[in-house]
Amino acid sequence: MTVLGETAVADLRTGFAGSVLTPEDPAYADARVLFNSMITKRPSVIAQCAGGADVARAVAFGRELGLEIAVRGGGHGVAGTALTDGGIVIDLRRMNAVTVDPAKRTARIGGGATMSHLDRATQPFDLATTGGRVSTTGVGGFTLGGGSGWLERKFGLACDNLLAAEVVTADGNTVVCSEESHPELFWALHGGGGNFGVVTSLTLRLHPLPTAAVALLLWRPEAGPEVTRAYRDFMENAPEEVGGGIIYLTGPAEPFVPAHLVNSLACAMLITYAGELTRARQVLGPLLSLGHEGELIAEVPYAELQCMFDDPPGYRNYWSAEHLDELPDKAVDLFCARARDMVCPSPSQHVLFPYGGAVASGPSGYPVPWRRAPWVVHPLGLWTEPEDDDRGIRWARDLRADMKPWSTGAVYSNFIGQEGRERVVAGYGLENYRRLAKVKAAYDPDNVFHLNPNIRPEK
Ligand code: FAD
Asked: 98-208+429-443 sits in which CATH class?
């Protein structure tokens, strides 16, 4: 690890509004913890920025000293790119303010805010926008990668709702970008991730959403193929208000879970509805009458729905995904059969999400090549013991291999860890990648921001 001289650190601390932590600081150990406990990198310095001026100084400091620069938002990236070994972490978590303009239906969000900050600020106005499926994910990393969540079939991907962003670029300048200002950079932020600079604030479009409904229906795993087929057939013509997915999981010890599914593999159908429960019950009739063995059905404010399925931090994580252009019975059978290999009991999830709706009909030009896929299979592995690593990783890879015959080949980088160069390019699509490489050359020609699904600068 680069050991920084006291003078260098003192220089950075002078006039820095936030905190500068080095390994000697008591707060350092907690400050480098990520969601994925497999990532244990040790930066030389963590700059906990309080605003854009701190970010610009931290970027300049890193560059002057030749330190590798990592950018941290919510710390949810499963690949662990929010940390660096020996370099500097630009930690944005203090920059979490959210300002809602109810008349314009927009929210201005600090680059380090989480979904929880966003949803708690918009809920009092009965407004919402597409967020991640849990409350603890960073709005920044989520939106810049594309942003897929419960409301996407109604309101589009998070990036479809991005109206403007403020970015500290590699040369330390602050750029405000939108359709009118720095349009190429603005386009690149719709899926291009953290490649182009540190996004210190984002402005997102909001939508009216006074209430939401949720249904979690449970079956023993043997029922999975039949349930999944019924779900697939229903989703083909489902209204855009319906979100959710099929999720094999370990049945939690909750009152709505029958004893035989507690701590055992269960097949769950999770249904979210952007609207009232009474209307949801009418629309979801065919799914609610499939004969489930356990149920949780409720009308809740969207901000509450967002925290209902928060994954626990502190686990070892391995995730992957495969986007499918169809889901024939054979694919359903393979998907369901492979659930038996996941580490269970554990918080792991074996997931099938539908897209369609406003995801499919959204703008086609953004670098999110996966948006036209009707389905995504997403193994999310979480476990505690290193001896389960091989099993957990093999299960996720085997599931991907099973799905290959129906894969579109497109990749959503936010859903995967580090899977090699080919998958990075597939995360943008080759044509988009070439255009992104030019934007990268304009705003970060030295590839200062390379801890991400990296786009190499090319003129
Ligand atoms: P970090 O690890 O802090 O950041 C990841 C990378 O994003 C950084 O290395 C950096 O390159 C970039 N970055 C983050 N913030 C900024 C910024 N302000 N400026 C510039 N670059 C930045 N994704 C979905 O689409 N839908 C989901 O439903 C969903 N659910 C999830 C649930 C859990 C429990 C977890 C762990 C992840 C989930 N994700 C989901 C994936 C998530 O969107 C990505 O991991 C995303 O990158 C996380 O962003 P972050 O800011 O929390 O992560």
From this structure: alpha beta
